[in-house]
Design goal:
14 helices, four-stranded mixed beta sheet, nine-stranded mixed beta sheet, D-Maltodextrin-Binding Protein, domain 2
Length: about 350
């Protein structure tokens, strides 16, 4: 198996705080007020949200300007969710983070950059949209892949990212683990054997979900990609007739999380705009943008509008079945955890 390790590491800025225009100046003297008077905020996000936030940022800037009279410019950054979290810890001047899983935000919190109450600030534990894990196969589904059991068959070539850098990969792993746990009645020896067979079939383990899509779609590698639902929907839309989505009988409710990076926002003078930027994700208009990009809106009424897009009858476990992200990450993905043990066998 080949790992592609383009892990994003941003060097910490050496910032001198000076007072100008009523705002703090950061990182080499570049104010968060642009020359045209607009307020600049930075959203550090994960790989597959590129298209979503391109549209949301344009909508937000217009809607917020009409409501408040303030002009806002949003700068985007994308990469594997774990790598993005580490970049913020190491100095990336994010005002907000919109990452693939709560644990990545917890990492930033534990380093003193986000206040402890971040999960209670926005509805649904600061998760404005959800997704599930599905399979993407080439048209015709030559290997007849219909569920998790098919991924451990000999001769099936899997593409999935690396849990050490990708939030999607963590969700993928847990979805497969939960399926095996139910199949084998919680017998961990059998579960580990199942997971070992699955990861033995992984031929390329990219650093992020979008990298896996590039490997599968543009480079033509693999028989099946274990994927975010939104990423699979986008691929099917962009390449009509070339790919099919396979929804396994059971999956996991993936809950990407959002937070203001309080320490940075206070220093940059962007607390109010950063908070409103995330709050607007819950508006009806923004929830429709979310649905249009293949994410499941948290607003139940808007979600129903997309019932033709999503399989709403899929059996889903959640991170609560693993004791929450803090416990799950420590058990499965921390150095020396279950994932490492399986990979070393």
């Amino acid at each position: 198996m080949r790992r592609t390790g383009d892990r994003i590491r941003w060097a910490a800025c050496l910032c001198a705080a000076v007072f100008a225009l009523g705002l703090f100046v950061s990182c080499g003297g570049a104010s968060n007020v642009e020359d045209d008077g607009s307020i600049r905020i930075t959203n550090v996000s994960y790989d597959p949200t590129r298209e979503l936030y391109a549209d949301y940022n344009a909508w937000f800037s217009e809607a917020y300007g009409k409501e408040t009279g303030k002009r806002v410019k949003v700068v985007q950054s994308h990469g594997g969710s774990g790598s993005q979290a580490r970049s913020v810890v190491e100095g990336s001047d994010a005002d907000v983070v919109t990452l693939a899983l709560a644990h990545d935000i917890m990492l930033i919190q534990q380093n003193g950059l986000i206040d402890q109450d971040w999960m209670e600030r926005f509805p649904r534990q600061s998760s404005p949209y959800t997704s599930v894990i599905v399979f993407l196969v080439r048209s015709g589904n030559e290997k007849n892949i219909t569920g998790w059991d098919d991924l451990i068959r000999d001769g099936v070539d899997i593409i999935t990212p690396d849990p050490k850098s990708s939030g999607a990969a963590c969700w993928n792993f847990l979805a497969a683990w939960h399926y095996a746990s139910e199949k084998y009645g919680g017998d961990e020896r059998k579960i580990r054997r199942f997971m070992k067979k699955l990861y033995d079939n992984v031929s390329v383990m990219d650093s992020g979900a979008r990298g896996s899509t590039t490997t599968f779609v543009e480079n033509g590698q693999g028989d099946v990609m274990v994927s975010w639902e939104n990423e699979a929907l986008q691929t099917v839309s962009e390449y009509p007739g070339e790919y099919e989505i396979v929804c396994p009988a059971s999956s996991i409710l993936a809950q990407p999380s959002v937070a203001v990076v309080d320490d940075n926002a206070r220093r940059n003078g962007t607390e109010e705009v950063a908070r409103d930027y995330l709050a607007y994700l819950y508006t009806k208009e923004a929830q429709r943008i979310i649905g249009e990009h293949g994410y499941r809106p948290s607003d139940e009424d808007i979600l129903k509008e997309f019932s033709g897009t999503f399989d709403l009858d899929m059996k889903l476990c959640s991170i609560d079945d693993f004791g929450g992200w803090e416990k799950a990450y420590e058990s499965y993905f921390a150095d020396g955890g279950v994932f490492d043990e399986i990979m070393e066998q």
